[in-house]
Amino acid sequence: MNFTKLTEFLDNLENRFGIPGGDLIVNKDGKTVYRHSFGYSDKERTRRVQGNEIYRIYSCSKVILCTGIMKLITEDKLGLYDNLSDYILEFSHMQVRNGDGLKTADNLIKIIDLLQMAAGFTYDCGHPAIVDYRNSTDGKADTLGTVKAMAKMPLEFEPGTAYRYSLCHDILGGVIEVVTGKKLGQFMKESFFIPLGMNETDYKYTFGSEDRYFWRSNYNNETKTTTFIPKDVNWFELGSEYESGGAGIITTVDDYIKFSQMLCDGGVTKEGKRLIAFEGIDLMRKTINENQSAFTMTDYKYALGVRTHVSNEHNFSKSSLYEFGWDGAFGAYTEIDIEKGIAVYFGCGTSGINALVHPDMRNLIHEALETE
């Protein structure tokens, strides 16, 4: 193994793409073979990245959420093709856009539609239905109540007929609460976080000191400038009691890699305790949304809440077929390559860099692992 090129790549990310800092960990066959932190975690650039920073990971939360759904499916507590309205009645009669107007949707939303971002929702966190519910609860807006309010949002297309990145996985968070009778965060703690020793992972910032917070920033590739975001700004915190299944998790690199490694190991902890059947993981990475007209990464498709490598047609990725994972709005990235025994997590706090950084970083990781 030779990680020289990868380290040079990471150390040059601020010069190339304005990324103040980050932290990459690579596991091979269950062991950490590479860890590199670079840059600074605060906007004043006084705190070097130490490896114990606390990140808002945004959509990297989706991998965890969908693993929870697949756990319930493989335990026969939920059906992949069940109707959403069987669990949350408010979604029984959805409205869908029809030209300049609306009509009642012909198709019911199914659980698989939510997993595959095929239900027809948007990512409008400021929709009047959401805002009105939050105001009616004096800002508390718990998860299930907020999800029920989302049923008032018109769909952009008939469920099961297309792909649109949206609030689908937040709605699945509400499904988990109905099926289990527990708050989303409590279910995740009991099912994954506690068994994996993810003691610094939650849907709220309830742990760690303030100086461990990793500041978020936006990178503008046109102007080549980076601007920092105030700590109290979070577009996906829809209420003080809301836990966002799609974008709400706060964690560390050391914690998240435990989750990625569990997936890479087929659903078991390092102690051998099974948390989810391998069938659930395999379905998650191989059940493709065939209605996508395009996807953000060449030779990849969207499956059940994850991108998955489905073709070598363009020789875009050096990973195995059905390598899977996802990323977050502010640069977080996870990759699970079961066939090669590789688990990766990248902690970052900069938006606008995913397409610029992740593909090259992924290929450099695989090159390093294959170099004598």
Radius of gyration: 20 Å
Helix content: 25-40%
Shape call: globular
Number of domains: 2
Distance between the termini: 5 Å
Q: Report the CATH topology name of the largest domain.
A: Beta-lactamase
What labels would you give this structure?
single chain; 372 residues; alpha+beta; Beta-lactamase; Methane Monooxygenase Hydroxylase, Chain G, domain 1; 2 domains; seven-stranded antiparallel β-sheet; three-stranded mixed β-sheet; 11 helices; 14 strands; globular
Describe what you observe in this structure.
With 372 residues, the chain is of the alpha+beta class. It folds into two domains: 254 residues, 3-Layer(aba) Sandwich (Beta-lactamase); 100 residues, Methane Monooxygenase Hydroxylase, Chain G, domain 1. Helices cover 30% and strands 16% of the residues. It contains eleven helices and 14 strands. The strands form four sheets. A seven-stranded antiparallel beta sheet has the order 2-1-13-12-11-10-9, with helices on both faces. Helix 3 packs across helix 10. The mean pLDDT is 95.
